[in-house]
Design goal:
The complex is a heterodimer. In chain A, 51% of the residues lie in helices and 10% in strands. The longest helix of chain A has 17 residues. The model of chain A has no long low-confidence stretch (mean pLDDT 86). In chain A, strand 2 and strand 3 form a beta hairpin. Chain A is mainly alpha-helical. Chain A has two domains: 79 residues, Winged helix-like DNA-binding domain superfamily/Winged helix DNA-binding domain (Arc Repressor Mutant, subunit A), CATH 1.10.10.10; 34 residues, no CATH class. Chain A has a two-stranded antiparallel sheet. Chain B has one domain. A two-stranded antiparallel ribbon of chain B has the order 2-5. A two-stranded antiparallel ribbon of chain B has the order 3-4. The model of chain B has no long low-confidence stretch (mean pLDDT 87). The chains are: A mainly alpha, B mainly alpha. Strand 1 of chain A pairs antiparallel with strand 1 of chain B, so a sheet runs across the interface. Chain B: Keywords: Membrane, Transmembrane, Transmembrane helix. Chain A: GO terms for molecular function: DNA binding; DNA-binding transcription factor activity. Chain A: This is GntR family transcriptional regulator.
């Protein structure tokens, strides 16, 4: 059963990025689940179909799904395919980090920054 | 079925098909009204569809003319022409779907909406399943009831009055016994396997951006099912016609001259009516299969005015 409408949800990968493509996929699906845009029971596209849409090897998408399964974000079932299992159990500091991230987005949006600029700023902070 | 390709229904279907095709081309959404990627995808799909029909027709004509199944029996190749059409048609579409343009560029996007079987193609899918089941049933029934030799049906032995002995059995053919049924069943299996492969490919091929995606994918699936269902329906109808005509011939009975008397022997009015109805049903099935080829695939409509809201934004990459 699909609990949310995934029609407007889009995954985007940059094949020239130093971040491996499977990692980009894993991060984005994890973010969607954390933001409750994907909820428990939502079906993800078959690895073959998603790989075709993104022009990737099936193994790349399969690896992303495998990593997501290993962290408990999704579950693979023989009959229904890959479905969202639920958000990863939050750590004690999760609330603080989520609030800080929300503040980053709020300040960035107020300054007219794009999502890409915000992510770049976050990446720069991670490198410090 | 030998004269299938010179028969009036086929010529009529070709004529109507050309007219319908010209009408569809004239009323199609113009290329300049479409996103270039969508226009290219539509051209790829319709091109593959047209090529599949031409290749299928060429294969059917070639099988009918060259008689590659001559060693299996007279008329077997002609009986297999609809299946040759369906197999080649489906095979070409499978290749076409496999060769669908792949996404290019450094940044690529994909919807998270899972693929589903298009609702628009469900009716044709039911038709294909029904045709396959009917074909298997007719072939099995013909196989089970045919006379030794596998290409005719035998009537009962009838006792003559006044101790004059017995006559029969009378034999009529062609009849879908094993000589025709086995190749037909094998050909049906090949077509169904190709349909499964082509559908798997069509449902997993790269998406087209925007709302045209659903229409173009439904059109691809529709084309695969339409050609295969048409071939199986024509084959089913052909087997029904020849089988029922043979049965009707048996059911008519015969006149036997004994000394100075002429006796009517055999004859089964109920079977005669049933066989006539079956032959009519078979003829109708052939026409339905030919007409199915004229059923247009789902088509793109002019794009509605652009909504005022922003497009859905991609998900930013956030470390877990």
């Amino acid at each position: 059963m699909t609990a949310t409408d995934a029609r407007g949800l889009v995954l985007r990968v940059d094949v020239t990025s130093p971040v491996p493509v499977y990692e980009q996929l894993r991060e984005q699906v994890t973010a969607l689940v954390a933001a409750k845009q994907l909820v428990r029971g939502d079906r993800l596209p078959a690895a073959r179909a998603l790989a075709a849409d993104l022009g990737l090897a099936v193994g790349t998408v399969a690896r992303a799904y495998k990593e997501l399964e290993a962290t408990g974000v999704v579950a693979s079932r023989r009959r229904t395919g890959t479905v969202v299992a639920g958000p990863v159990a939050p750590s004690p500091a999760a609330g603080l980090v989520a609030d800080a991230a929300a503040d980053l987005v709020r300040v960035g949006r107020a300054a007219g920054w794009t999502d890409e600029q915000l992510v770049t700023a976050l990446r720069a902070a991670l490198l410090r | 079925m030998g004269g299938l390709f010179s028969s009036a229904p086929v010529a009529l279907v070709l004529l109507v098909g050309l007219t319908v095709g010209a009408g569809l081309a004239a009323t199609a959404v113009r290329r300049r009204q479409l996103d270039p990627a969508v226009a290219d995808a539509r051209r790829h799909g319709t091109g593959a569809g047209g090529l599949a029909v031409l290749a299928g027709l060429a294969a059917a004509v070639a099988v009918g003319l060259t008689d590659p199944a001559a060693r299996l029996g007279s008329g077997v190749s002609a009986a297999l022409t609809p299946l040759a059409f369906a197999a080649v048609h489906t095979g070409v579409l499978w290749v076409g779907e496999s060769a669908w343009p792949r996404p290019r560029g450094a940044v690529r996007t994909a919807s998270l909406l899972p693929r589903r079987f298009p609702a628009e193609a469900r009716r044709v899918r039911r038709l294909l399943v029904g045709a396959a089941v009917g074909l298997v049933a007719v072939a099995a029934a013909g196989w089970a009831t045919s006379a030794p030799g596998g290409r005719a049906v035998a009537g009962p032995v009838t006792a003559l009055p006044d101790g004059l002995g017995a006559v029969g059995p009378s034999v009529a053919g062609p009849y879908p016994g094993p000589v025709f049924a086995v190749p037909a069943l094998a050909g049906t299996a090949v077509v169904l396997v190709l349909v499964v492969l082509a559908l798997r490919t069509a449902l997993a091929r790269p998406a087209v951006p925007g709302p045209a995606e659903a229409v173009l994918r439904a059109a691809s699936v529709h084309r695969v099912l339409r050609g295969a269902a048409a071939g199986l329906l024509v084959e089913l109808g052909g087997l029904l016609v020849v089988g029922c005509l043979a049965l009707r011939s048996i059911a008519r009975g015969a006149e036997v001259a004994v000394d100075t008397r002429v006796l009517d022997v055999g004859g089964d009015p109920v079977l005669q009516v049933l066989a006539t109805a079956g032959a009519a049903l078979g003829g109708s099935t052939v026409l339905a299969g030919l007409a199915l080829l004229l059923l247009p695939a789902p088509r793109l409509r002019p794009a509605p005015p652009t909504p005022s809201g922003p497009p859905p934004s991609p998900v930013p990459a956030v470390p877990a």
